[in-house]
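RECORD TYPE: inverse folding
INPUT: C-alpha cells
STRUCTURE:
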C-alpha cells in the first residue's frame, strides 16, 4: 500500500472516530438531561468487593445478606469483583440470587475479579450471567475487555474497568493488568463527557503502587488518563483491606471485604453540596457477629506474630507480640494515623526492627509504618 492509500485509510478512520464522538456526545447529553429532569439531586452509592461466595463460606454469605439489606430504594450498589470464590457457575448463581432480590429498588453494577474468570466461567459467560447488572445498562462497552461505562439514575457516570489478566489455563491470576488499548478507550469516554459530569472510576485491582511486586501491569498510562478533573476517585478492591492514596492527580480508595473485621462497606453520597466517601460497618461491634469477627482478627494477629518471630531471638518476646497486635488492629480499624507516633516509640517496634524475620510480615510492617497511611473513614471527594 503506497503513501496515498495509507493517507486515505487514515483519513477515513479519523472521520469515523469524529462521527462516533459526535454521536457519543449527543447520547451523553441526552442521558444527562433525562437524569437531571426525572430524578432527584441526592444519590447514595454503596460499594463492596471480594464477596468470595461459596458453598462453605458461612460468614461470606451472612455479610452479603447484611450488605443487600443496607441498600434502600433508589440507591446504587457497585460490586468490584471476586464475587465468587472459585469462579464456579453455581457460586455466581448465588450472587445473582441475592441481586435479583433488590433489582426492583436499586441499580446494580458489577465487575469481575481474578476469582470470577475461569475455564468454567470465561469472560463471555460472565458478561452473559451479569447482563442485567451493568452490561445491559451500559451506553458504551469496550470490545476487547469486560469494561463498560454506564450512567446511574441520578447522573453519576460509572467507568467500570476490567483490570484482570485473563489466562484461560489458570484458575486465578493474582496480578492485574491494564490492556494496551484501555487507556485510549477511557480517554475517548472522558473526552466525550460534558464538563462537570461526576465520574467514579472502578476496577478490581488497585492502580497504586505503580511499581513493585503488587503493581498492576501498565497502570501508569491509565492513571494519567484518570487524572481528569471529572474523575472523583478510583474505587478498587482485591487487597481485602481499607486504604486510600493520592498520587499523580488521582485519588484511589481501596474497599475492604465485608466478611472480616471491621466489615465495612464503602458509601458515596452525592448531593448539591458535594461528594463524600465514608465507610459503614455492616455489623454492630457489640453484637455476637461483630464480636466474633473482631476476636477472629485478634487470633489471626497473634498467629502471625508468633509464626513470624519463631526461630528468632525475639521468639518469646511479649513486647513484640503485644506491639504487633496493636499495630495490626490499628491497620484494620484505620486508626494508624492517630497511633503511629506512639507505635514508633514503643519498645516492641524496636524489637521487630532487630528481629531476623524471614516471612513477609516484617517488610509489611516497615513499609506501612514508613508510608503514614491516610484516614479512609471520611473523604471529601468534591
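DESIGNED SEQUENCE:
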Amino acid at each position: 500500500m503506497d503513501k496515498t492509500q495509507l493517507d486515505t485509510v487514515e483519513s477515513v478512520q479519523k472521520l469515523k472516530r469524529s462521527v462516533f464522538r459526535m454521536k457519543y456526545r449527543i447520547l451523553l447529553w441526552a442521558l444527562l438531561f433525562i437524569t437531571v429532569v426525572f430524578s432527584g439531586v441526592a444519590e447514595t452509592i454503596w460499594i463492596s468487593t471480594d464477596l468470595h461466595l461459596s458453598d462453605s463460606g458461612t460468614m461470606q454469605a451472612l455479610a452479603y445478606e447484611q450488605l443487600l439489606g443496607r441498600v434502600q430504594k433508589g440507591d446504587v450498589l457497585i460490586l468490584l469483583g471476586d464475587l465468587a470464590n472459585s469462579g464456579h457457575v453455581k457460586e455466581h448463581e448465588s450472587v445473582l440470587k441475592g441481586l435479583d432480590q433488590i433489582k426492583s429498588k436499586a441499580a446494580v453494577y458489577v465487575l469481575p475479579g481474578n476469582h470470577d474468570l475461569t475455564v468454567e466461567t470465561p469472560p463471555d459467560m460472565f458478561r452473559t450471567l451479569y447482563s442485567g447488572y451493568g452490561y445491559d445498562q451500559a451506553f458504551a462497552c469496550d470490545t476487547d475487555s469486560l469494561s463498560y461505562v454506564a450512567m446511574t439514575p441520578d447522573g453519576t457516570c460509572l467507568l467500570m474497568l476490567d483490570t484482570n489478566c485473563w489466562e484461560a489455563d489458570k484458575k486465578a491470576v493474582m496480578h492485574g493488568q491494564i490492556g494496551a488499548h484501555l487507556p485510549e478507550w477511557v480517554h475517548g469516554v472522558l473526552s466525550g463527557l460534558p464538563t462537570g459530569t461526576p465520574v467514579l472510576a472502578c476496577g478490581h485491582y488497585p492502580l497504586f503502587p505503580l511499581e513493585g511486586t503488587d503493581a498492576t501491569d501498565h497502570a501508569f498510562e491509565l492513571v494519567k488518563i484518570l487524572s481528569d478533573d471529572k474523575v472523583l476517585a478510583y474505587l478498587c478492591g482485591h487487597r481485602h483491606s481499607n486504604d486510600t492514596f493520592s498520587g499523580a492527580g488521582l485519588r484511589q480508595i481501596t474497599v475492604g471485604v465485608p466478611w472480616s473485621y471491621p466489615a465495612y462497606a464503602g458509601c458515596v453520597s452525592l448531593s448539591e453540596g458535594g461528594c463524600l466517601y465514608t465507610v459503614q460497618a455492616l455489623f454492630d461491634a457489640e453484637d455476637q457477629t461483630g464480636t466474633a469477627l473482631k476476636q477472629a482478627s485478634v487470633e489471626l494477629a497473634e498467629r502471625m506474630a508468633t509464626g513470624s518471630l519463631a526461630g528468632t531471638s525475639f521468639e518469646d518476646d511479649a513486647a513484640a507480640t503485644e506491639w504487633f497486635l496493636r499495630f495490626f488492629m490499628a491497620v484494620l480499624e484505620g486508626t494508624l494515623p492517630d497511633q503511629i507516633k506512639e507505635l514508633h516509640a514503643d519498645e516492641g517496634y524496636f524489637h521487630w526492627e532487630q528481629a531476623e524475620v524471614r516471612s513477609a510480615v516484617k517488610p509489611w510492617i516497615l513499609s506501612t509504618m514508613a508510608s503514614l497511611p491516610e484516614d479512609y473513614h471520611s473523604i471529601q471527594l468534591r
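NOTES: The CA atoms of residues 314 and 355 lie 6 Å apart.
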